[in-house]
Design goal:
- With 112 residues, the protein is mainly α.
- It has one domain.
- Helix content is 71%, strand content 0%.
- It is built from 6 helices and no strands.
């Protein structure tokens, strides 16, 4: 489970991901549904474009594993992906975190 300190430390990486995310991928279908559904749809898009987000993913995983992004880059891809998956699964199992991050995604993907 991600504690508050780790969640706060992860926010800059999450913001960087959404800043880098090409808004063309964020069609109207991703913006519909509950905060949890929007978050899950966003993760799928993120994983499809994972090569754009390596530093951010390494940073998120490093926080979860209490290590450095450099150490994450050296570990097996399976361990990295499993930790990344665990971050989001634990986020969506926690109602408050799910609502927070889901609403953040909804706001970040709204048309100007």
């Amino acid at each position: 489970m991600i504690n508050t300190d780790k969640a706060i430390d992860m926010i800059p990486y999450i913001v960087d991901i959404y800043d880098k995310l090409d808004k063309d991928y964020l069609d109207k279908s991703i913006r519909t549904g509950s905060a949890e559904e929007v978050g899950k749809k966003s993760i799928k898009i993120l994983l499809k474009n994972i090569d754009k987000f390596k530093p951010e993913i390494f940073g998120l995983v490093a926080i979860a594993q209490d290590t450095t992004p450099e150490e994450v880059a050296k570990q097996s891809i399976i361990k990295t992906i499993n930790t990344f998956k665990d971050i989001f699964e634990s986020t969506f199992k926690d109602k408050e975190m799910s609502d927070f991050f889901g609403s953040f995604v909804q706001q970040a993907t709204q048309e100007p």
